[in-house]
Amino acid sequence: MTILSVDDSTTIRRIVKRSCEELGHTVLEAADGAAALAIVAEKASEISLVILDWNMPGMTGLEVLKTIKSNPATKQLVVMMLTSEADMNFVSDALKAGAQNYLTKPFDQKMLALKIQESMSMVGA
C-alpha cells in the first residue's frame, strides 16, 4: 500500500515513513499542502492513504482535506489526520470534512499501525 505523509516537520515525516515501511508500506512525502496536492493530482490512483498534519504553513491540513474531498478524481482517497490538535472541535471538523480517522501527537508505532488499519477498514479496503 502507498501512503502519502504530509507534515511540515521533517522529524514527524521520518517517523511516519520508518514506521510505515516497517509495516510493509511504500511512503511518499510532502512538506506542505501545495506539495501534497501536487502529489495527489499526479499519483491519486497509487495512493491508498493520506496521513495529514493539521498545522502547516500556507495551507492547513483541513484545507488540504477539503480540497481532496471536493475533487471527484480524489474524493475516494482515505485521509487520516495526524496532529497535535486534540480539541474535539478540530476532530469534529476533520471528520465532517471527510477524514476517516484522527491520531494525535505524540504517537507510537503501534498506535499508528492500529489507526492505519482502522482507517482502511472504514472504507472496506
3D architecture notes:
The structure is a single chain. With 125 residues, the chain is of the alpha/beta class. It has a single domain (2-118), classed as Rossmann fold. It has 5 helices and 5 strands. Helix 2 packs parallel to helix 3. The model has no long low-confidence stretch (mean pLDDT 94).
CATH topology: Rossmann fold
Overall morphology: globular
CATH class categorisation? Alpha Beta
What's the alpha carbon Rg, rounded to whole Å?
13 Å
The H-and-E topology, N to C, reads as EHEHEHEHEH
Summed up, the helix count is 5
> For the report, how would you describe the main beta sheet?
5 strands, parallel
- Give the termini separation: 10 Å
Give the total of beta strands.
Answer: 5
CATH superfamily: Response regulator
Percentage of residues in helical conformation: 40-55%
Question: Could you report the average pLDDT, rounded to the nearest whole number?
Answer: 94
Helix/sheet category: alpha/beta
